[in-house]
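Record Leucine-rich repeat receptor-like protein kinase, 564 aa.
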Amino acid sequence: MYENDFSGSLPLNIGNASKMQVLYLYSNRLSGTLPESIGNCSELTELYLNNNMFSGVLPKSFNNLEHLTDVGLSWNSFDGRIPFGIMGNCKNLSVLDLSSNFFHGEIPPGLSKCSHLSIFAAINNSLTGHIPASLGSLTELSKLYISENQLSGRIPPEIGKCRSLTSLLLNSNNLEGEIPSELGMLSKLSTLQLFENSLSGEIPLGIWKIQSLAALEVYYNSLSGELPVEITELRHLRNISLFGNHFSGVIPQTLGINSSLEKLDFTDNAFTGDIPPNLCYGKQLRFLMFGSNKLQGSIPSDVGNCSTLERLRFEQNNLTGILPDFVSNSNLNFMDISDNNIDGPIPSSLGNCQNLSSIDLSSNKLSGPIPAELGNLVELQTLDLSRNQLHGSLPSQISKLAKLNSLNIGFNSLNGTIPSSLRSLKQLSTLELPENQFIGEIPDFLPELERLLELQLGGNLLRGSIPSSLGQVKSLTYVLNLSDNGLTGQLPPELEGLSMLQRLDISRNNLTGSLETLGKLNSLLQVNVSYNLFQGPIPKSLLKLSNSSFIGNPGLCDLCKQPW
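=>
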C-alpha cells in the first residue's frame, strides 16, 4: 500500500491486526496521530510510514513492539521525545529512521541497548544535548546520521569503537572542541561530514589514513593545520570540502596522483604555494575551488583541458602568469578568477566553453581586446571583466548572449561608441561600462532593455544631451550614473518617468537649466549633481541631501523661493 495516494488517518482499531508482521504505508498522504492500539500489533517486524503527514507524539504502546527490526518514520511531523521504552525492547532493531520530524530532547542513552542496530538516522530534528558516549558499544552500526540538529559538546571518542561505521554525519550542529583521534580507527569509513559546527584544532592524521574514505566534508568550522602528504594515498577519495576554515601551508603537489577526485573545495583558508599540477588531467574532477587563499604561481595548463570540470574558482589569490587555453571544458558553467595578478590576453578559446553561465575575471591585469568568440557563450548570464587593462571596442558579438543579465566591463581602456547591437540583450538588468573611453552619445535603444535596473556610464567621453528616451527606462531602480562625461543641455522633463530610481549621479558634466525634474523623483535616496552649470532653487525634496551633492553649481540656491 506504499506509494499510492491514500489520505486520511490510520484506523483506531489497527491493533486488531495483531498478527501483522509488515506495514508499508510510505509515500502517501496519510495524517493524524498513531493510534494507541498499534501497540497490540505485537508481531510487527517492519514499520515504514515515511513521507506522509503524520503528527503528534508516538504512543506509549509503541514500546510493546519488541519484534521490530526496521522502523521508518522520516518526513512526517512527529514531535515529542524519542521514546525511551523502544530502546529497552529493541534487541532486534536494525534500522531506526526518524529524520525530518520535530523530535526534541536528547538522544536516549538507552539506544546503546539496540546491539544489532545498523542504521540510526535522526537528521533534521530539534535534538539537543550531547552525543551519548554509549553509542560506542554499537559494534554493528554502519550509518549514524544525526546532522541538522542542535547537538552540543564534543564528539565522543567512543565513536571510534563503532568499527562497522561507513557513514558518519554530524554536520550542522553546535559541536565544539577537537576531532577525536579515535575516529581514525574507523577503517571502513567512507563518508565523514562534520561541516557547520564549531570544531577546532587539526584533523587527526589517522583520518587521512582511512583507505576507504571517499568524502571528507568539514567546511565552516575553525579547523587549522596543514594537509599531510598521506592525502595523496587515498585512492577512493572523491570529495574534499575544507572551505571556511583556517587551514594553511602548501597543498601537497602530488595531490594530482589521485585519479578518483571529483570535488576539491579549499576556498576561504590560508593555503600558500602553487596550485598542484595534474589535478585535472585524466580525472573526473567536477569542482576545483581554491578561492580566497594565498596561492601564487600560474594556473596549471591542464585546468584548460578538463572535460568534466563544472565550477572553477581561483578568486582572491596572488596568481600570476596568463590564462590557460580552454580546449575541452565542455561542462564548465562557472568561472571566477577575479582579484589576482593574471596578465596577458583573454584567450579566444574561452569561447569553447559553451555551457558557461558566469565568468568573473575582474581585478587582474588582463590586456588586449575582448575576444569576439565570447559571443559563442549562449548560456552566459554574468560577465565581469572590470578593472583590467583591456582595450579596443566592445565586440558586436556580445549581442548574441541572449541570456545575459549582468555585463560589467568598467575600469578598462575600451573605446569606440557603445554598440547599438546591445539592444538585443533583452534580459540585461545590470549594464556597467564606467571609466573607459567610450565616445559618442548616450544610446537611444536603452528603453528596449525592459529589465534594466542599473546603468553605469560614468567616466567616459560621452557627449551631447541626456536623451529624453532615458525617461522611458522605467525599470531603472538601483543606479543611474552618467557622471564625469561631457554631457550638455538641460535635464529632459521625461526623466520624471524614472519614478523608482534610488541613486542618481550626473556630476562633473556641463549640464544646465534647473533641477525641477529631479524634485519629482520621490524614490531618490542619493543624488549627485555637483560640478555642472545648474541654476535656480534646489527642490525641497532634495534639501535633506549633503551640500556636497550640489557643490560646483554657483547658480544653485537653497534659500530662494521654490515654486515646486
